[in-house]
Amino acid sequence: MILMNDFKAEPETLIAAELQAVERVLRSGWYVLGEEGRKFEALWSQRCGTQHAVGVGNGMDAIEIGLRALDIGPGDEVITTAMTAFASVLAIIRAGATPVLADINPETGLLSLESVRRCITPQTKAVLLVHLYGQVRDMDAWLALCEQHQVALLEDCAQAHLASVAGQVAGSFGSFGAYSFYPTKNLGAIGDGGALVTSNAALADKAGVLRNYGQSVRYYHPEFGMNSRLDEVQAALLSVRLQWLEQYTAHRQSIAQQYRNALNNAHVKLLLAPEAVTAHVYHLFVVLTQHRESLQAHLQASGVQALIHYPVPIHHQERCGDIRRDPAGLQASETHALQCLSLPCHPQMSEQDVQTVIDAVNRFVP
């Protein structure tokens, strides 16, 4: 079976380096907020083109901490997409702010500029742009919109490690970028982890306080903070795995290009190809079909695992029926949720695996 992710197939050289990193931490006797964390923060901020990175417990906390560091909370609205992981919206709610859902561009799955424009009110304090599936697009237009309305542009980069436009990396455009290092991400830990990246020193300092109980120096708590720290073991592992990220990303991009060149089934639609100046990192390779259940079953029978990201848009979640949304509706999000299907696109795939997926999709008849 060709899996969506195959961690057991990772190379022995990587595993050996990770074991050495874990042993180094164990022998150091320092497990939280130490040298390994500072080292990874420096490496990751440099790779993202920002001045600062603050390691936290997970990607959702990175968003919440960023919002709180910007004093966005009760009475403030944050516009985001209905087509995202639930954590994006949950972080807004946990910060005390009010999420507002905008629709997507059906060609990309990304937030629609026109829909966001319809959602802006005097209470809007930020737009949380989700770089869904690993794609970054139209950043000049987003920056211009947010500047025009004097609201903060925030980036959910959970699926966009190394994604870029004209060489500028995701997370460096807005006030902050929030990264997840959940194991399935392009840069994944061996457990939970996250980071906030920014070039705003005051924001980074406050985020560092908020992640550690609101503590500025030991036993002094000027803020009501959280317990959300990237531990030393995960930081050490991420520093090792970061050395592989470039080649792993190139392999994902190669697989995606082969799919784009060879998938040829009238019942399966591809999302819009990235522009030449854009580096799409293909956390997921998503296709659209009106026959999703039968295609998924056909792929499973052909030895190919395919998953749905995401089958339930945010406003259809049980606790989210009353969330304010685009007055024109969220039809594109609802249609996408009914038709999207993710094909395997990960660094452990062989050329034969890729061809097997292509052949299986092309053979599909509803």
TrEMBL record:
Keyword Chaperone part of the UniProt annotation: no
Keywords associated with the record: Aminotransferase, Pyridoxal phosphate, Transferase
The keyword Transferase belongs to this UniProt entry's keyword annotation: yes
UniProt superkingdom: Bacteria
Annotated Pfam families: DegT_DnrJ_EryC1
GO molecular function: transaminase activity
Entry-linked InterPro entries: DegT/StrS_aminotransferase, PyrdxlP-dep_Trfase, PyrdxlP-dep_Trfase_major, PyrdxlP-dep_Trfase_small
Family, per entry: Belongs to the DegT/DnrJ/EryC1 family.
Name under which the protein is recorded: DegT/DnrJ/EryC1/StrS family aminotransferase
Organism expressing this protein natively: Methylobacillus methanolivorans
